[in-house]
Amino acid sequence: MSLVNERRKTRQICVGNVKVGDLSQVSVQSMTNTYTQDVDATVGQILSLEKAGCEIVRVAVPDMEAAFAIRQIKDRIHIPLIADIHFDFRLALAAAEAGCDALRINPGNIGDTKKIQAVVDASRAHGIPIRVGVNAGSLEREIEKRLGTTAEGMVESALSNIRILENLGFYDIKVSLKASDVTRTVEAYRMLAPLTDVPFHVGVTEAGGLYAGITKSAIGIGMLLSEGIGDTIRVSLTRDPVEEIRTGFEILRALGIRSRGPELISCPTCGRCKIDLFKIAEEVEKALLERSTKIKVAIMGCVVNGPGEAKEADIGIAGADGQGIIFKHGKVFKRVDQDQLVTELLAEIDEMTQIAEELNGKEE
């Protein structure tokens, strides 16, 4: 039985060359934490995100210098770029002119109708969509006064902002409804889902550091995706944004929605473990991050149960006193010195990857 319900049907928009909604695959995105004006630092971080599998990236645009930097950044990256705008409509116009692939705004805090119209006109002229970003912590004053920072308030804000854009004849929209807790976030998306066909960007905002952030995001995003709600996702962590991409793809993999790159399984260790499994698992995990071939890799602590418990893995290692084994599909392949385990494992993975790519090439 599938963990995931039938996907919610939506209209489709394009963020650069990435399709969002209308049953296109769920995309994984992140946001830089560099100063956007620092072009070299921002480009460097985006290139690292690309290697991890990031499909859409967002940058903060707090001033004109940041807006103008978008053109230089775009020339050096390979994935769509969203400009994150608050309050000043002129920043949205400048970002659109500089070549961003989408705008993230709150129409309610952009200003009067003329200013919103100017943003819509620029988006239409440049063929870029708008994401209506609703956060529980920044609802319109009137809505917050009447409904509080509730899921109901978030939904009313989203519908109001969607209407503003659609009344201006603009329909290339996606929307997000984010709170810092799972309950309100999930409740808001569930409430809005039947009321519009706008695609959803899903995430739990201000989720926290590594452990709290991963836990909240996995539960919140995972619950919504399992219900067929969500077209693009962002895991928010107070961490290197590369970790957001890794977590996002692991959530999709766990639900059977998408898989990218190797899957790593490892045992929790016990008193039989004779190797530094924590260090080895971390080394292998980092080394596999930039590999895109779908392969299951096992890191096991001992030879007693290692190959048997991980027989579904394509390849794996298990430790012993001063030595270790490399096994494939549950059968011992070779024995190597402990200090060569990781090196030998990665070499075997590379060889398996090359063979797989050659076979795929022949089939095509």
Architecture overview:
The chain is elongated, with a radius of gyration of 23 Å. Helix 1 (39-52) crosses helix 2, helix 7 crosses helix 8 (182-192) and helix 8 runs parallel beside helix 9 (210-226). The longest helix is centred in the C-terminal third of the chain and has 23 residues, at 341-363. The protein has 13 helices and 15 strands. With 364 residues, it is α/β, with parallel strands linked by helices. The strands form 3 sheets. It has an 8-stranded parallel sheet.
Question: Would you spell out the secondary-structure blueprint of this structure?
Answer:
Blueprint: E1 12-15, E2 18-21, E3 27-31, H1 39-52, E4 56-60, H2 64-74, E5 81-84, H3 89-98, E6 102-105, H4 107-110, H5 113-126, E7 130-135, H6 141-147, H7 151-167, E8 173-178, H8 182-192, E9 201-202, H9 210-226, E10 232-233, H10 241-254, E11 263-266, H11 277-288, E12 296-300, H12 306-309, E13 315-319, E14 323-328, E15 331-337, H13 341-363
Parallel strand pairs: 3-4, 3-10, 4-5, 5-6, 6-7, 7-8, 9-10, 11-12, 12-13
Antiparallel strand pairs: 1-2, 13-14, 14-15
Helix pairs in contact: 1-2, 1-10, 2-3, 3-5, 6-7, 7-8, 8-9, 9-10
Radius of gyration: 23 Å
What are the secondary-structure elements, in order, as H or E? EEEHEHEHEHHEHHEHEHEHEHEHEEEH
Mean pLDDT score, rounded? 89
How are strands sequenced across the largest beta sheet? Answer: 8-7-6-5-4-3-10-9
How far apart are the termini?
Answer: 32 Å
Write a concise keyword list for the protein shown above.
single chain; 364 residues; alpha/beta; 5-stranded mixed β-sheet; 13 helices; 15 strands; 19% strand
